[in-house]
Specification:
mainly beta; three-stranded antiparallel β-sheet; about 10% helix
């Protein structure tokens, strides 16, 4: 999973003693309809382009690298998989990890192996064993 320029800079500054990096208490998954890059960019879905869209709070299991999720991730994100898209969403090409529920910084991202379009009544699920975070 590539990490953003923001996170690279924060980690280098932290390790070399220039500044202290305080990690966020919660990380969030967000979806992109165009590919982000290390310097940001890409087009994250919004409530205007994808009804009921919001970033999903992630819960991590264990310690070490890679870290895996302790539960599944759902979009739309009621957290149960019982919610569905009220109308078609743009095609999702990547997932990002953010340090805030809205705005904030993208910390890392990963392209989807197969882009996915949610139609009315669909939901997108990432199972916990298919999502992990590591720095290579």
């Amino acid at each position: 999973m590539p990490i953003s320029d923001f996170l690279k800079t924060a980690l280098v500054n932290h390790v070399t003693g220039a500044t202290t990096y305080t990690p966020p208490t919660t990380l969030y998954a967000g979806l992109f309809s165009s590919m982000p890059a290390a310097n940001g960019g890409g087009t994250e879905l919004t409530i205007a382009t994808a009804g009921k869209y919001t970033r999903f709070a992630l819960a991590w299991a264990g310690m070490g690298s890679p870290r895996s999720l302790s539960g599944n991730v759902y979009f739309p994100s009621l957290g149960t998989g019982s919610d569905t898209a009220p109308s078609p969403w743009p095609t999702v090409v990547a997932v990002g990890i953010f340090d805030a529920l809205s705005s904030g910084h993208m910390l890392a991202w990963e392209p989807l192996t197969t882009p996915r379009r949610l139609n009315t009544g669909d939901f997108l699920q990432f199972t916990s064993f298919n999502v992990s975070f590591a720095i290579a």
